[in-house]
Amino acid sequence: MTVFTDLVAGYRRFHEHGWVEQRDRWAELSQGQSPKVMVIACSDSRTDPATVFDVSPGEIFVVRNVSNLVPPFELGGGRHGVSAALEFAVTQLKVEEVVVMGHGSCGGVHASLTGRFTDAKPGEGGFIARWIDMLDEARDRIVAQYGTGDEAAHQLELETVRVSIANLRSFPCVREAEAEGRLALHGAWFSIRGGVLWVMGDDGEFAPAV
């Protein structure tokens, strides 16, 4: 099990090798960033976008949260971490593409299907329940069709991507940039077990990347 001391040891290896070997790159990045792609992914420790997409530092602007969800555009109530990151990426960094990447064996999806945190208090699962209630409508539809087994979980994992992309389009800055051809939205799903990335087409269906 990796602990903080292991992370520090890893940093030392990085500093002695990776940082030194790409010193020019790090010097360039110290002056600013200009990624072309934003990736919205799950916080799950098994699905690091930089690993899945094999990219170097500075190439993708990443936001990670439970079940790779984007909330709908809203002005009231609480903090808006995902919304702020999205706004920064689209209006300040001028990213040209936003990718929402779901994945297999998603704990947030499992919680949605099982209702594990329903009525839980904050600190005991209440924050999780409030976050994943964005999936309630899709979950009810999927449960009616597939039940609550493995296939339902897979279908709801795909729905996390579709729901998030629909919510992305509720943001005025996204709609404007997309309408003007300055921004493209993409969906993807990564199979942890199979190591295969599935890409969402214009029809909302997913197929393995070729």
Automatic annotation (TrEMBL):
<dbReference type="GO" id="GO:0008270">
    <property type="term" value="F:zinc ion binding"/>
</dbReference>
<protein>
    <recommendedName>
        <fullName>Carbonic anhydrase</fullName>
        <ecNumber>4.2.1.1</ecNumber>
    </recommendedName>
</protein>
<dbReference type="InterPro" id="IPR001765">
    <property type="entry name" value="Carbonic_anhydrase"/>
</dbReference>
<dbReference type="InterPro" id="IPR015892">
    <property type="entry name" value="Carbonic_anhydrase_CS"/>
</dbReference>
<comment type="similarity">
    <text>Belongs to the beta-class carbonic anhydrase family.</text>
</comment>
<dbReference type="GO" id="GO:0004089">
    <property type="term" value="F:carbonate dehydratase activity"/>
</dbReference>
<keyword id="KW-0479">Metal-binding</keyword>
<dbReference type="GO" id="GO:0015976">
    <property type="term" value="P:carbon utilization"/>
</dbReference>
<comment type="function">
    <text>Reversible hydration of carbon dioxide.</text>
</comment>
<dbReference type="Pfam" id="PF00484">
    <property type="entry name" value="Pro_CA"/>
</dbReference>
<feature type="binding site">
    <location>
        <position position="103"/>
    </location>
    <ligand>
        <name>Zn(2+)</name>
    </ligand>
</feature>
<feature type="binding site">
    <location>
        <position position="44"/>
    </location>
    <ligand>
        <name>Zn(2+)</name>
    </ligand>
</feature>
<dbReference type="InterPro" id="IPR036874">
    <property type="entry name" value="Carbonic_anhydrase_sf"/>
</dbReference>
<dbReference type="InterPro" id="IPR045066">
    <property type="entry name" value="Beta_CA_cladeB"/>
</dbReference>
<feature type="binding site">
    <location>
        <position position="106"/>
    </location>
    <ligand>
        <name>Zn(2+)</name>
    </ligand>
</feature>
<keyword id="KW-0456">Lyase</keyword>
<feature type="binding site">
    <location>
        <position position="42"/>
    </location>
    <ligand>
        <name>Zn(2+)</name>
    </ligand>
</feature>
<keyword id="KW-0862">Zinc</keyword>
